[in-house]
Hints:
By secondary structure, the protein is mainly α. It is 57% helix and 0% strand. The protein has helices at residues 12-26, 34-51, 60-77, 85-95, 109-116, 124-134.
Amino acid sequence: MMTQLLKVVPEPQAILRAWMPFKSVVGVTSVRTADDYVQARATVDALVDEIRADEDHPLADVLDYLGEQVKRYEDVHFTIPEAQPREVLRFLMEQHDLKQEDLADCAPQSRISDILNGKRAISKDIAKKLARRFNVHADLFL
């Protein structure tokens, strides 16, 4: 028999009092339009720059939440064509207007260059970092 821990469920009005200031600061909490997407994507990028690889960062949950909202929008409105992992990386870099050195949180610039030029494959470790950076599945890079 499984024992369930009973958690206190907050009153809807208490949730609303916390949600509205959050929504006001973040600017978007669900991505339904192109404008929502632009705002959420910019916020995700700022959070990634702040959090880096620190999964215990207090804003990591916000990043995960907004990243999921962005992903849902992208799944409907953008398709990434079947391509080599390095081409997927190149595509995402172009979409986000990034240079090789902008991915220093994922790999050294020289390694990114080697990957883009087909001299190196993307390692599992780098694939995970790139996936977190771009809010996509690591499988795209493997």
